[in-house]
């Protein structure tokens, strides 16, 4: 099995594109490091297809277990997959699991993982708040006094 990925300066890819592409025979993907911009990932199309198959299978498996009433099993193993989820209250963990199953199914059908990543990031931030009692208290406290006037929203032109 090829190594997971290899780092390569973006300039190497620009100067030696064929040699860079040939390296994909020994690694799953190449992370092209760029200065001042987001890094890029280069992988073979068949690898992307295999990844999509696994993601589709996993989302369907989760959904099938949930529909079959086996959400307790999923709920029990959630802390292994997402250790930070232990900081979420039980009610929030159940809601996260429900949203995750729904979004995973939709994302798999569109071959777009971004919604899953966004959802997990949002819930991780919620867990960070619950893990910090001082922060949780500040964010959930009722504001004191009058917060002042609020200007009317500007009308769209």
Task: Give your account of this protein's structure.
The chain is mainly α and 157 residues long. It has two domains: 3-43; 46-140, no CATH class. It is built from seven helices and three strands. It has helices at 10-15, 17-22, 45-67, 71-81, 90-110, 114-131, 133-140, and strands spanning 3-9, 27-33, 40-43. A three-stranded mixed β-sheet has the order 1-2-3. β2 (27-33) and β3 form a beta hairpin. The mean pLDDT is 89.
Summarize it.
By secondary structure, the protein is mainly α. The chain is built from seven helices and three strands.
Number of DSSP strand runs: 3
Low-confidence stretches: none
- Helical element count? 7
- Side by side, the strands of the main sheet go 1-2-3
Helix content: 55-70%
- Quaternary state of the chains: single chain
The termini sit apart by: 57 Å
Q: What number of structural domains do the residues give? A: 2
Rg for CA atoms: 22 Å
User: How much strand?
Assistant: 5-15%
Summarize model confidence as the mean pLDDT: 89
- Main beta-sheet annotation: 3 strands, mixed
Structural class: mainly alpha
- Overall spatial form: extended
Element order: H for helix, E for strand? EHHEEHHHHH
Show the helix and strand layout.
Elements lengths: L2 E7 H6 L1 H6 L4 E7 L6 E4 L1 H23 L3 H11 L8 H21 L3 H18 L1 H8 L17
Parallel strand pairs: 1-2
Antiparallel strand pairs: 2-3
Provide tags for this entry.
single chain, 59% helix, mainly alpha, 11% strand, 3 strands
